[in-house]
Design a protein that fits this description.
Distance between the termini: 57 Å
Strand content: under 5%
Structural class: mainly alpha
Low-confidence stretches: none
Helix content: over 70%
Number of helices: 3
CATH topology: Chorismate Mutase Domain, subunit A
CATH architecture: Up-down Bundle
Largest sheet: none
CATH class: Mainly Alpha
Mean pLDDT: 96
Number of strands: 0
Shape: extended
Number of domains: 1
Order of helices and strands: HHH
Oligomer: single chain
Amino acid sequence: MVNKNILKIRKKLDKLDNQFLKILKRRTFLVDKVLQNKKYKKDIVDRKRIKIILRTVSSKSKRMKIDPKITNRVWKSMINAYIDYEYRNFKKN
């Protein structure tokens, strides 16, 4: 049987996950807007921007006392998922 404290904490995690899903929905909407402005498939991956994003997330993570290994993996995964999404949804004008 699972401890009552663990169940309470898991409920809070579930609420947080629901908020996270709403944020991902908003992020996807913005990615769609960016994608509409890309003329060529080669414009989908911007390595320079990715490097800047990962560096910024790492430094913010350290400042906020979050393990940067976690945030780095989450952001890399999210970036790769959205790159895949953009390739699947790219429509040439």
